Each structure stands twice: as C-alpha cells, then as structure tokens.
Amino acid sequence: MLKLVLRANAVSCAFFGALFAFAGPATANFTGNPPVLLVQVLGAGLLINALMLVWKSLSADPDRLSILAFALGDAIWVVATALLLITGVWITTAGGIIWAVGIATFVGACGAMQWKLAPNWG
Prior knowledge:
Low-confidence stretches: none
Radius of gyration: 15 Å
Order of helices and strands: HHHHH
Mean pLDDT: 98
Strand content: under 5%
Number of strands: 0
Distance between the termini: 20 Å
C-alpha cells in the first residue's frame, strides 16, 4: 500500500509540477496573483520531488526517514496553502481557491497515509 501512495503522490507532483513549470503565467493567472517565477520554481521542485517519490516507490525496502520526510513535505504544503488562503495572498480567484483546497486535501491524505504506513525503525 505504501508504494501505491508514493506513486499516487508522484503522479500528482509530476502533473502539477509540469503545469507550474511550463505554464507558469497561465497557472499564476488562474490562481490569482503569485509571482510567475515563484510558480515556475515551485513546479521544478515538484518535478524533482516526483522523481524522488518514484525512486523510493521502486525500492525493495523504502526507509522510514525518507517516507517521513515526504510526509513532512506534504504537511508543509497543506499548512502553506491554508495560510495563503486565510491571508488572501496569491490564491485569490474562485477557481484557484477551489483547486488549492482540493489539491491540499489530496496532498494531506497522501502525507497522512505515508506517515501511517512508514516502516518501523530498524
């Protein structure tokens, strides 16, 4: 089950990473008014994260520390999204808000499952 969660998270990161990196201006316009360069850099980071998630999902025995690091990254994504929505910064359009909530919900679910399914120490 853990490997399936890692791969689902990777697909999400790859999709949104590509969207942010290669359609930065359109993505920024859709969500509100974030700096385009920030959106593109975030996209590149998501693409790298997608590769790391796939790599770990292909490992015969993914290590606990890596899985918990992915879960922590997902938690940071959820908290950052919530803060942006609460403060009304950058994510200001109706479509952007709806998508941000949906993505954060999925990312949070992935993080929670990764945390729960992480192998025990040793």
